[in-house]
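Q: Please design a sequence for this.
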């Protein structure tokens, strides 16, 4: 195989690998966002203050 053909094959392989990563990210974007929102909600519940349920706007009118 000539050097030019090897270089072309490497470029094609790299571009296909990049396209696969992009497709995986796009395909799994919804799952990643749902997981992140669930984690954020769980941490918010775990580390929330006991006074978060009061309506501060109504208290200081």
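A: Design:
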């Amino acid at each position: 195989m000539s050097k030019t053909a090897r270089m072309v094959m490497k470029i094609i392989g790299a571009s296909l690998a990049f396209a696969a990563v992009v497709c995986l990210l796009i395909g799994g974007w919804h799952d990643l966002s749902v997981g992140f929102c669930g984690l954020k909600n769980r941490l918010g519940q775990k580390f929330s203050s006991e006074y978060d349920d009061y309506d501060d706007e109504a208290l200081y009118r």
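Q: Thanks. Anything notable?
A: Residues 3-47 form one domain. Residues 2 and 42 are 58 Å apart (CA to CA).
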